[in-house]
Model the fold of this input.
Amino acid sequence: MTTMTAAAPGTDGRGGLTVADGAVERIAARAITEVDGVGGAASRVLGIAVGGEDLDQGAKVSAHVTGSTTTLDVRLSVKYPLSVRATTEAVREHLIRRVGGLSGLTVTRVDITVTALHSGETETRRVR
Done:
């Protein structure tokens, strides 16, 4: 687990603030839920989805904290027919603003992988 020190201990006896990768991952995953039309990504084994990709699931986020900066790797799904480009740009900008504001870190890079497009129609299965 990587941690960062946001404020070096001063001569006044105060300690420093450390933020773990896992804390940044949880902040980012929660911030993604604030963007409309974005859902979660299924876990994958050898590139094959295990379980379903659902708009109600949370997105998968991986964070790497170095010093006072962090990078994010995000896996999510987008609701069709929304523009993938516009939606991912909205997610990227929102993550930079929210993660930076809540953690005090500078987000230097956000890599986004769209794993699925979800139709607005609900699929109904019948047994014949």
